[in-house]
Design brief:
464 residues; alpha/beta; Rossmann fold; Four Helix Bundle (Hemerythrin (Met), subunit A); 14 helices; binds adenosine monophosphate; 5-stranded mixed sheet; binds zinc ion; 4-stranded parallel sheet; elongated; 15 strands
């Protein structure tokens, strides 16, 4: 039985979608005023694994991630770069998709853009006004949180203890202030992007987009809504207030899932601290698969502390998995070891049990690591045949449907004639136990970018 931790109610619950095997899943997407950073990468990898695990478990998922292409930050950045917000968005969205691809993240079914949903947003705000949940002022339209009795049910924030009737107009929100928030903002400067509306020319506030676009693409009630913990208050609290007020249906979202934040060397990423890492910078230094491996090793709710040191460790563990897979692919011979099937079956069970328990990836990896050690021992003692290797590989391929970290094709690699000769010479030297001479050749090959591993199956090489 699959269980998920629901922020709404703060409990683990059995996962039962609203409509049979169909899952409607929405995750808050990026504000596309610059390239994505590694915090985004963390959140989208975490939800990619969750989405793919639902599919692995037989659910049919429709996955929607919005793109925030109108926002105070978009306007400011576009002005700085002397381009339109649309050009700025196009540029960063293209980059975002490229990064997602490199990180092995499966595309969402829909990536709705706010500026393509202005009509629906105006309709939604009008409905809230008609129902008495919104009021117009000189500068826009605001949501009156005192009218929504359930306000605070997600985050636990208490409305009574706070002064309501105060308003927040910008796209920046204070974490502990309960305030009426903007649904529509009137244009202030003639060069600000603006659309017609019953309240005059203007643009939507930030929270309304997710209520509007989720209902348009997934219906008024969703199975899963995700985002990182920073969005619980006020963003997600406000989404509930908007959506439930409009539809009258409860709950807007059956399961709220929140991923943990990524910090860098123990500190929140920020431009002023100079520890802000954009995805393209990360990918210059590390294999994208290694970052995915890093994230997939941790529970999605846990905080991640990114550091070069941690990444180096991950690089080495991933390399061991790559070598393990290659080793399995190289095994030939008829030998049959009945223990292999038992091992594969019990590992699969352990991984599924771990994932069914709110996607407990550390436990899944512990089971896989245990299997890797046991299989390596069996291969070392010559007990493994091609059939056995295939059983292990088939399991890894199956689990890779949601893990997405194993690589099964050998890269097309070629050695130059000279390099092959050096390797042959080195093997002869090793047979003659001439270690220091053989080490010299290893160093020479390393200089040429060829790394040597001496395994029980003989010498293996790979490109650095
Ligand atoms: P933003 O572009 O800031 O609107 O964020 C887009 C998505 O990434 C949201 O789901 C955020 O919660 C998430 N996010 C932003 N910063 C981080 C971070 N440092 N760690 C993890 N997730 C983040
Ligand atoms: Zn959102």
């Amino acid at each position: 039985m699959l269980k998920v931790y629901n922020t709404l109610g703060k409990k683990k619950q059995e996962f039962k979608p609203l409509h049979g095997k169909k899952v409607g899943m929405y995750v808050c997407g990026p504000t596309v005023y610059g390239p994505g950073h590694i915090g985004h990468a963390r959140t989208y990898i975490a939800f990619d694994i969750i989405r793919r695990y639902f599919e692995f478990s037989g659910f049919e998922v429709k996955y929607v991630v919005n793109l925030t292409d109108i926002h105070d930050d978009m306007i400011k950045r576009a002005k700085e770069q002397r381009i339109t917000i649309f050009e700025l968005a196009d540029k960063n969205i293209a980059l975002f998709f490229k990064d997602l691809d490199a990180l092995g993240i499966k595309k969402a079914d829909v990536y709705p853009r706010v500026t393509e949903h202005i009509e629906e947003i105006v309709e939604f705000v009008k409905a809230l006004e008609e129902k008495g949940f919104a009021y117009a002022t000189d500068d826009g339209v605001y949501y009156d949180i005192s009218k929504f009795k359930d306000y605070g049910k997600l985050s636990g924030i208490k409305v009574k203890e706070q002064k309501t009737g105060t308003r927040v107009e910008t796209d920046k929100y204070e974490k502990d202030k309960v305030q009426d928030f903007a649904l529509w903002k009137k244009q202030k400067q003639p060069d600000e992007p603006a659309w017609d509306s019953p309240w005059g020319k203007g643009r939507p506030g930030w929270h309304i987009e997710c209520s509007v676009m989720s209902s348009k693409h997934l219906g008024e009630q969703l199975d899963i809504h995700g985002g990182a913990v920073d969005l619980i208050f006020p963003h997600h609290e406000n989404e509930i207030a908007q959506s439930e007020a409009r539809s009258g249906k409860k709950p807007f979202v059956k399961y709220w899932l929140h991923s943990g934040f990524l910090n860098v060397e123990g500190q929140k990423m920020s431009k002023s601290l100079g520890n802000f890492i954009e995805i393209p910078d990360l990918l210059e230094k590390h294999d994208a698969r290694a970052f995915r491996f890093f994230v997939s090793g941790l529970h999605y709710k846990s905080r991640i502390d990114f550091s070069e040191k941690a990444m180096e460790k991950v690089d080495r563990t991933l390399e061991k998995w790559d070598l393990f897979v290659e080793r399995l692919m190289d095994i030939r011979g008829e030998k049959e070891n009945p223990e292999a099937k038992t091992l594969v079956d019990s590992t699969r069970k352990e991984v599924v049990a771990a994932m069914d328990d709110d996607f407990m990836l550390p436990n899944a990896w512990a089971a896989l690591q245990k299997m890797q050690t046991a299989v390596n021992k069996q291969i070392d003692s010559g007990k493994f045949g091609e059939g056995n290797a295939k059983q292990v590989l088939d399991l890894l391929k199956e689990l890779n449907q949601f893990l997405g970290v194993f690589k099964f094709e050998k890269e097309e690699q070629e050695l130059s004639k000279g390099q092959q000769e050096l390797i042959n010479q080195r093997e002869t030297l090793r047979r003659e136990k001439k270690w220091s001479e053989s080490d010299k050749i290893r160093e020479e090959l390393a200089k040429q970018g060829i790394l040597i591993d001496d395994t029980t199956d003989g010498t293996k090489w790979r490109k650095a």
